[in-house]
Amino acid sequence: MAKTSILNKIYNSGPLILLYYLCISEVDTNLENIFEIFTLNFQIILIYFWVLKRPEIMANGHIFLAGLINDVVMGFPLGISSLSYLIIIFVGTYVRNKSVNTTIASDWFTFFMAMIFSNILFFSLLNNFSDLSFTYSKIGYNMFFTLFMFPVFWFLFNIYLMTFVGTRDA
Amino acid sequence: MSVSRDDFSIAFRSALLQRGGAQKFSVLSLIFLALIIFFLDVYGVKFTKPVRGFINDVVYRVTFLASTPTRFFPQASKDLSNYFNVIEENKRLRAEIEKFKSLELNVEFLQDENKNLQKILETEYFNKNLSNILLAKVLVDKNSPFLKSIVINKGTRAGVLKGMPVTKDNYLIGRVVETNYLSSRVLLLNDLNSRIPVTLDEGTQAILSGSGTTNPILEYLPEDYEIIEDLNIFASGKDGIFTPGTPIGKTNDQGDIELFVDPNQLSFVTVNLNLLKKEGL
After folding, report:
1. pLDDT for B228-238, tens place per residue?
2. Which residues have CB under 8 Å from B114's CB, separation 6+?
3. In this complex, is the C-beta atom of B77 within 8 Å of any C-beta atom belonging to chain A?
């Protein structure tokens, strides 16, 4: 019984550990070496999915902290990634409050909205309050591939959810 | 109608203020906290710089440790393949040694000639600066679509200052843009924010600008200037930061610059402490 409980705890912590690891390690989802324009923001897919499906295993405080770590590692002004992730949480929680049944199509659409709000805030703050410059085409590619890859990760996370975590939907 | 508006406001408020269970903090409070941290960091209030420096040092070390597995497996497979190729490599190296032995005689003569020519040109002899070159290990090399930078394990304690040029095998790779006590961030030449004055083979002056891709580009060339392939690019040193004549890369058939050092394959680099220190910056 105790063993099952420990295993459950480990499975439940999986997404959070993955988020922290992605933020703090050199592992990145900037796959320009494979395909010149292929970059995606995996963190926001991860956060959105789990906030939507099982918010209790993705605590806001942890996401905030992961954002701060991401800023330090990437060299962005502190707090900017946290703000961007918090916008994702906000949209995800709002959608969760408003909807009874969700499908991959509805999740995909609402994820698009969340990503738009989050990126607008992220890049407008970066543009106005830092010396960093960036190309809009890169932002476009990044958003496109993040959106494009969402269903793939949605299925993978769903398998993880069904197999290891278990759903609580009625 | 009013019911729908109520629904909206309830869901909206709940999303912002909801707490309880695993959620110890509401989204709204964390947004405020993030905004405060952001503006403190951006406007650089007196106490934030050392705090940020300390956080950077700690996080960079943890990142280095956390990335060990990702570095170990590619290195292990490389070592394994090297092991199996060792006989072939031995033969090749023997042949190379013979070749270099024959070239060795010419080197001394060329060194003297080079010294004399540099005296005539009144530029500094590069080897004079060797005592001011600091070897540093790359701690973090996280690729980002928006920023091309690395973090090295030497900071202000070792005498690294903002703006110092960074090289690998005497090829320029970037400059220091952020210093902490135990670590520094180096902006690579291919970053979108990087601009340095350069000289082409035949003496033409230009600015090397990072394009955000692997290969930087040349800007502010003379009017009607056509870039031809295989032109060598050197730092001109006109900014007083980079050593004049430090090789950077060469032009390719598309008109952009292929760097001599692949910015994605850096493990050890050298920081040139000389120039900025001399000016007392």
Report:
1. 888 888 888 87
2. none
3. no
